[in-house]
Design brief:
The protein has 206 residues and is an all-alpha fold. The protein is built from six helices and no strands. The mean pLDDT is 95.
């Protein structure tokens, strides 16, 4: 299934069906895509406002970047599905087949690369959300908070697909590096999201 062209109903139906793809990787990717789109909506409604004149150039750049991040998220979800298909084929080969041994490591790395990309995208979105705290309409703060939450969820969700694949790597140092990088990204995402949430909660109390 092509994530970029599937309807919401098609995606939900396929996600809940007896198929391996779309699965968790696609769900994580679309969480990131929704986050980017929602953050972009905040930008679109805020740009051009008198109060944010000094941020006009940044708003324009941010709008374009968030549009690209949404597209990148969908692409990463598609790559995740393709990578799983290749890895599944390799795992189905006979254990004593030399071709299996040669193909396994690259296939596993591809299956790690896609969720790691989703995590990287999530951080970029969260950084935009944090910047928008000071240059977005107060009427859109809940949307900004939801965008940040979705990005944080995407990062943590993608981590599961990193964790499930690293045990398959023969290079244990590489496996540890990938796991450590994923943990660091999740912590970074949680830290930014916490700052956003705390700031917005404080503003609500004022």
């Amino acid at each position: 299934m092509e994530l970029a062209t599937a309807t919401i109903q098609q995606f939900i139906t396929e996600l809940g069906s007896r198929t391996t793809t779309p699965g968790g990787g696609a769900a994580a990717a679309l969480s990131a895509a929704q986050s980017a789109a929602l953050a972009r909506m905040v930008v679109v409604f805020s740009k051009g406002k008198k109060a944010f004149t000094e941020h006009e150039q940044v708003h324009a750049e941010m709008e374009a970047h968030l549009l690209g991040l949404a597209d990148d998220s969908i692409q990463a979800g598609q790559e995740d599905a393709k990578a799983w298909g290749r890895l599944s084929d390799v795992l189905a080969m006979r254990p004593d087949d030399p071709a299996r041994a040669a193909a396994l490591e690259p296939a596993v790395m591809d299956s790690i690369a896609a969720p790691r990309r989703i995590q990287e995208i999530s951080i970029a979105i969260l950084e935009h959300c944090e910047y928008l705290l000071d240059c977005s309409s107060k009427h859109l703060k809940s949307d900004l908070a939801i965008a940040a939450d979705l990005a944080s969820v995407a990062a943590r969700s993608a981590a599961w697909n990193v964790n499930v694949n690293t045990p398959l790597l023969q290079d244990r140092e590489q496996a540890q590096r990938q796991q450590d990088a994923s943990v660091d990204t999740c912590q970074q995402a949680s830290g930014i999201n916490d700052r956003i949430r705390n700031r917005l909660l404080q503003e609500q109390e004022q």
